[in-house]
Amino acid sequence: MGSLGFWRLAQQDPEWIAAVDPDGTEHTAGELLARSNQVVHGLRTLGLRAGDGVCGLVPNGTDGLVLYLAALQAGWYYTPINWHLTGPEIGYIVADAEARAFFVHERYAEEGVRGADEAGLDASRRFAFGKVDGFRPFEELVDGRPDTLPDDRTAGQTMHYTSGTTGRPKGVRRPLTGFDPDDSGELMTFLLGMFGVPPGRPAGQEPQAHLVTSPNYHTAVSQFGGTALQMGHTLVYMDRWDAEETLRLIERHRVTNTHMVPTHFKRLVSLPEEVRGRYDVSSMKWAIHAAAPCPVPLKQQMLDWWGDCIWEYYAATEGGGTIASPQDWRAHPGTVGKAWPISELLIVDDEGNEVPPGTPGTIYMKMAGVQFEYKGDKAKTEANRLRDFFTVGDIGYLTEDGFLFLSDRKADMIISGGANIYPAEIENEILMHPKVADVAVFGIPDEEWGEQIKAVVEPAEGVAPGPELAEEILASLEGRLARMKWPRSIDFIDEMPREPNGKLLKRKLRDPYWKDREVAI
């Protein structure tokens, strides 16, 4: 192996600014290295061993980065938790991940405490950044610990939770490799390498900076940011996304690469011309986007403004995917690209037979050498497989020359602002309301967010539909469901369309809202 990987680079050049917190505080690589070493030494005294889980409920910034770096060299599974979740939802993940340590930032203290209680986590394994009732201060874990590299280092992994259609999230767990963490860190760099992004270290390379625009609990965000760090880039963290602040940070830190979603593009191009013209964004060379379909005119506007730096890919937490360079996209507007060099695509009909080019079918993918399982759910893992390919249920077609186009997605999943939202979970909560007989939740078009959440409710016998009932239903979700999952609006129906076997005909409800769109996505 060569000289890439965070730990090697940090030892060679400890003064390199490896991360900038949202408040502008700069952290050197040497400082982050020492801190992550202390976390390993501290947690090992609690008995943590390779294969154990660690969870973090922390905002974007170096607190979470240190936990991530510790796990990656101690052989632990690190799970960053969505901070929009409620206590019971957090507790489910902490328990399911079998976390042997849980770190909570004081900003999320209330739900974090509820989550730790729900998971029945011992007080000695609760740590706080700032002040959280019943949690030990983070300093107590690291103070006085050696800041040297721990012994018996072995590569860890992130384990992100992806919601299933059953409504309960599943941890995507890959087997540990047993690799040396330095070698493993260097192997990670292939991800940005596929887009042609160069290292920013060792000395002599052009400096590179990566802007973290989205919450770090998203798989892609931690993968791309983590990879950039392993390549010696400076990570510039945003706390809450803001269009003008994005432009300011790109100019201020000479940001060369970032990971975005189409909602970001929509907000950026909506800025007044005079604001857009105020900032120099010429340093940006790789604005990589995914997570939701990008309308062709919107992407065209971004290319016209930022130049040929808009790259796209299609992938899943489970592994595998496609990539579209700006040139590919200009030649095939609307494509999400061709299969990665180490990935394969298969488009099949409902019987699992491969379909010819131009014919829509279910998209299956695989990535060479990558295996995963949904933690604790072998049946779900197997159900989504076809030979050694897997699907997340999206529908699309391939052109003769291998370019993938998405034509529809499994009707269930809603993508709003780049976040995956699963209706079953929302339906389960609304159905608990005594005045609700039946409910269907689905996405409807939203110019800014891609999709917004619509609920259609069949009121219980003798209950009058109307705005009062809608308000009462929404109020009942408080504290039980993250607000990002609440329906934006509720419509009422006399009787839900169902087949004799009870299967909900969701498309019947959904189609009218999409009838003026070319693609239902």
UniProtKB/TrEMBL annotation:
Organism from which the protein derives: Thermomonospora cellulosilytica
PANTHER family: BLR3536 PROTEIN, LONG-CHAIN-FATTY-ACID--COA LIGASE
GO MF annotations, alphabetized: long-chain fatty acid-CoA ligase activity
Known EC number: 6.2.1.3
Coiled-coil positions: none
Ligase among keywords: yes
This protein's record includes keyword Ligase: yes
One of the Pfam families matching this protein, by short name: AMP-binding_C
Principal EC category: ligase
Name recorded for this polypeptide: Long-chain acyl-CoA synthetase
Keywords: Ligase
